[in-house]
């Protein structure tokens, strides 16, 4: 009997020592997966946070670049109405605030005084934002595959010309 009491006491002390090493009484492999899942979760949260911050920064830079052109901002419908009144075609710029190529077009081409002056004299300018309902309608109607897309339209909204993307003001003016 004395041996069985000793064996029970030894078994009891081993169980207590295992519980102190592994407080949740989980196998070591299970603990590894819990830690790995937590690490992956933290990584995903950080990745999503970085993405959101990047989108906000890109959008902020894009809005500033668009404003810096100094070109008037009309909705698409306003531009068509003004085109009818003034007898000018519409220069439609389909873009997005977060689009690096759109920002470059604004900064390197549309903000240049000679380009801006030519546009204001000969066209009704409109910027259609990809991230709006108007943008989605425009994209479907004119088969815009991406941003930026520049179109010259008549006062009824019929496409007269699709411009090739260039960041050289002289080449841009040649297309107009």
TrEMBL record:
<protein>
    <submittedName>
        <fullName>Thioredoxin family protein</fullName>
    </submittedName>
</protein>
<dbReference type="Pfam" id="PF13899">
    <property type="entry name" value="Thioredoxin_7"/>
</dbReference>
<keyword id="KW-0472">Membrane</keyword>
<dbReference type="GO" id="GO:0015035">
    <property type="term" value="F:protein-disulfide reductase activity"/>
</dbReference>
<feature type="domain" description="Thioredoxin">
    <location>
        <begin position="46"/>
        <end position="176"/>
    </location>
</feature>
<keyword id="KW-0812">Transmembrane</keyword>
<keyword id="KW-1133">Transmembrane helix</keyword>
<dbReference type="GO" id="GO:0045454">
    <property type="term" value="P:cell redox homeostasis"/>
</dbReference>
<dbReference type="InterPro" id="IPR017937">
    <property type="entry name" value="Thioredoxin_CS"/>
</dbReference>
<feature type="transmembrane region" description="Helical">
    <location>
        <begin position="33"/>
        <end position="53"/>
    </location>
</feature>
<dbReference type="InterPro" id="IPR013766">
    <property type="entry name" value="Thioredoxin_domain"/>
</dbReference>
């Amino acid at each position: 009997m004395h041996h069985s009491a000793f064996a029970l006491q030894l078994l009891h002390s081993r169980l207590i020592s295992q519980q102190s090493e592994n407080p949740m009484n989980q196998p070591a492999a299970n603990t590894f997966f819990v830690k790995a899942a937590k690490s992956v979760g933290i990584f995903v949260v950080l990745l999503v946070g970085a993405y959101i911050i990047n989108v906000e920064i890109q959008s902020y830079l894009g809005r500033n670049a668009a404003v810096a052109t100094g070109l008037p901002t009309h909705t698409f419908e306003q531009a068509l109405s003004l085109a009818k009144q003034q007898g000018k075609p519409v220069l439609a710029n389909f873009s997005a605030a977060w689009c690096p190529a759109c920002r470059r077009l604004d900064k390197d081409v549309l903000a240049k005084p000679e380009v801006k002056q030519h546009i204001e004299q000969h066209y009704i300018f409109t910027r259609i934002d990809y991230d709006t309902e108007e943008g989605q309608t425009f994209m479907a109607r004119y088969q815009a595959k991406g941003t930026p897309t520049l179109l010259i339209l008549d006062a009824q909204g019929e496409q007269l010309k699709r411009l090739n993307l260039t960041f050289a003001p002289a080449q841009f003016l040649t297309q107009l």
